[in-house]
Predict the 3D structure of the following.
Amino acid sequence: MPSAARSRSCLSVAAALLITTDVSTAEGFSRSVDIGAGRRIYLECRGTGAPTVVLVSGKGNGAADWSETLAPADPVHKADYDALAWGKGTLRKSESAVFPMVSRFTRVCAYDRPGVRLDGPDQSTPVAQPHPADQAADDLHRLLTAAGEPGPYVLVPHSYGGLIAALFARTWPDQVGGLVMVDAATPLMREVASPQHVAKWDALNRTSVPAAPEAIMLLDAFAKIDAAARPREVPAIVLASDKPWQPPSAQPESDPAGGVSFADWKASETLLATSLDARLVANTNSGHNIHAYSPQLVIDAIREVVDAVRAGKARIGP
């Protein structure tokens, strides 16, 4: 999988203190929140209503990821591979992006994990890298609690965010009302890729560099998900990319995932949908960052799951 720049990246394949700001207003807020133990995490929330949608970005990405899109006329849309992941195309802040559009029909929050943003105000407190996914899930739970953002939550993870969401849903099942998995990573990759390729994928993702500090521990996350209780059934939709990671002319050894192939990834998304009894949306005309290529697909899926949670449904129909 491609990696590196924010908004283009993915997987290189004490008690918490309440903030004093009233966060129930429609206009919302954006600030760092004290989660205890001398740490702060940047959070932005907007809109009103329940359930609250929580956007969980992929590796190296943060809250800004969900407020940007590719312009409809950008040539990247016509490429026969994920050109955005290769540094092509122009992302722009847009009111048609996922975060602002979801805020029109329910409460929505997005945040920065440590190490995903290197400039600007309210940066999240750094942590040692690579970090374990259960730490990231605990951070998210502390953050939402400290900010006074109550569940139930519809978790919307992208890429690495899928592992955080899986651990969150298993650790605090009563607080998760629904899932929209946006080309999300899953331990089910082990069902389709060789152990050697999965190990290579893990090693690549453990690497932290000054320009892209966030690094992750895939095999550790898989083991912790395996050891956790199964999540309860909730309404869920899985969105899968359909643009290959690399140009058709590229040599296999240039595969950005470092061993795990695009075919492996697609197969793992199918398995993920089956495991969640979720609808699979595989015709997305998108690379890995579906929320940038086709934001309306993500928005529509979120709205459907939000409506299902409000109606008390346990699943989404086919």
